[in-house]
Amino acid sequence: MLNLNYLKDIKYIGIIGDIHTQDKLLNRTISFFNKKGINNILSTGDIVDGPGNVNECIRILKKNNIKTVLGNHDRWILNNQMRLLPDANKISDLEVNSIKYLKALPKTIQILSPIGNVLLCHGINENDMNKINPNDFGYALEVNEDLQNIINDKYYRIIINGHSHKRMFKIINSLYIINAGTLYYEHDPCFVILDIIERIIYFYVFDEYKNIQMEDKYLLP
User: Fold this and answer.
1) Residue 42 sits in a domain of what CATH number?
2) What's the predicted TM-score (pTM) here?
């Protein structure tokens, strides 16, 4: 468990969505965080399967002590599944230390924050294939068993997840859901900054020239 309460001067949390081997965008994102003095950084996983350098991505995550969970693509490569997907890595692409890193990733991380308990996951809780889309409402949410279990438990105030590659902020029964999107170059790469003190969520995007721009911001009630 990552306990953020002991960091009395904490202001920001940086959030990175599905990485998919985008080492250059990952580096630029972390450089952006560093310039703002952000050293509490979370990632929703899916490090593998993309056009970039997967081993470099893992080195970057380790070097910057980024808290990361296991994504479904990470699970698939370890089990030699779904390797015919476009841009899929082979297990032989991974260095020994990279394989060890993936095998050690947890499915979820619980975070104690000043604004409530936070669940970092890839999909929804330990189900890395489940997701909530921005346009889901009503019945689509009611039949989402993983989501309803979290709502009924009333333990978490915030879910930070990825998987859908669709950046999103949604409030469901007082549960805040932040989808960090993805760094994958074909799916509108983006990242998130959560301002703990001011209770603001900032979504930043990379434009067609890979310049970083603030796209949206939301105030937590």
Assistant:
1) 3.60.21.10
2) 0.94
